[in-house]
């Protein structure tokens, strides 16, 4: 009597895997309707399966309810040489940490907020916080604002448009009083932000004039990581 149950479980795994492959291989984020049509599955079944994949971090649902590869896959995103996203970003993290003296993070989108994958520590005692594994809200964090503004959905709010014009986002005393951050996007081959590099520290040290001094280096390092991911033309990113 266990055979039908096992068969049903295997079938669900096969269907979920097929949906995951469709999203990963697509050149643009896909909605539930598109996935349902391409797979031949009922829309309700498709929605349930992609919901499970999203909860596990394998898929990410954007603001327009379309799905792209999630943070678990982005951790191991690689090019032909086989280097992971974290490995590709590590030189940039170290360069920015040395230059700024502050904490530098690599964040990626997830359904529960921005997830931090890697960090280089501040050289100061005050302001040193371990962000790896922590998630922060999109709307009050610099890397969250960047990921939203340059993500697949490209929101047309005034703030998002301003971020795209500047090429970076700031959050001063928003996530937490006394904490400031500036972030720039890391683009994939399609020109969407798949990660963000951020510099954060106490507002008393990371004031607006100091942020302005660090922005050129931050943008350059984010561009280099994007290039390592295969993005060679960011002229249309904004």
Structural account:
Strand 1 and strand 2 form a beta hairpin. It contains 8 helices and 8 strands, in the order αααββααβββααβββα. The chain has a 6-stranded antiparallel beta sheet with strand order 5-4-3-8-7-6. The chain folds into 2 domains: 67 residues, Winged helix-like DNA-binding domain superfamily/Winged helix DNA-binding domain (Arc Repressor Mutant, subunit A); 147 residues, Beta-Lactamase, CATH 3.30.450.40. The protein is of the alpha+beta class and 238 residues long. The chain is elongated, with a radius of gyration of 19 Å.
Outline the fold blueprint.
Blueprint: H1 3-25, H2 32-39, H3 43-55, E1 59-61, E2 67-69, H4 71-75, H5 85-100, E3 103-110, E4 113-120, E5 135-136, H6 142-149, H7 158-166, E6 169-172, E7 179-187, E8 193-202, H8 208-228
Order of helices and strands: HHHEEHHEEEHHEEEH
Instruction: Work out the helix count.
Output: 8
In the CATH hierarchy, what is the superfamily of the largest domain?
GAF domain
What is the first-to-last residue Cα distance?
Answer: 58 Å
Q: Would you identify the regions where 5 or more consecutive residues have pLDDT less than 50?
A: 1-7, 78-82
Task: Tell me the CATH topology of the largest domain.
Answer: Beta-Lactamase
Task: Characterize the overall form.
Answer: elongated
Structural class: alpha+beta
> On the 0-100 scale, what is the average pLDDT?
86
What features would you highlight for this structure?
238 residues; elongated; two-stranded antiparallel ribbon; alpha+beta; 43% helix; 8 strands; disordered N terminus; Beta-Lactamase; Arc Repressor Mutant, subunit A
């Amino acid at each position: 009597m266990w055979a039908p149950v096992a068969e049903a479980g295997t079938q669900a795994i096969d269907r979920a895997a097929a949906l995951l492959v469709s999203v990963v291989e697509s050149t643009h984020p896909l909605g539930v309707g598109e996935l349902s049509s391409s797979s031949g599955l009922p829309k309700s079944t498709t929605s349930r399966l992609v919901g499970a994949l999203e909860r596990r971090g394998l898929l990410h649902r954007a603001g327009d309810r379309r799905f792209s590869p999630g943070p678990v896959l982005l951790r191991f995103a690689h090019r032909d040489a086989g280097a992971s996203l974290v490995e590709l970003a590590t030189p940039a993290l170290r360069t920015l940490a040395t230059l700024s003296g502050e904490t530098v993070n690599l964040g990626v989108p997830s359904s529960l907020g921005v997830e931090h994958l890697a960090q280089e520590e501040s050289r100061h005692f005050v302001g040193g916080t371990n962000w790896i594994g922590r998630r922060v809200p999109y709307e009050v964090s610099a890397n969250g604002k960047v990921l939203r503004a340059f993500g697949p959905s490209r929101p047309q709010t005034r703030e998002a448009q301003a971020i795209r014009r500047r090429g970076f986002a700031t959050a001063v005393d928003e996530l937490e009083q006394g904490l400031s951050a500036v972030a720039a996007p890391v683009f994939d081959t399609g020109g969407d932000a798949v990660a963000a590099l951020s510099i954060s520290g106490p507002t008393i040290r990371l004031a607006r004039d100091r942020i302005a001094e660090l922005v050129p280096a931050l943008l350059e390092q984010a561009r280099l990581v994007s290039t390592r991911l295969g993005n060679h033309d960011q002229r249309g990113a904004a």
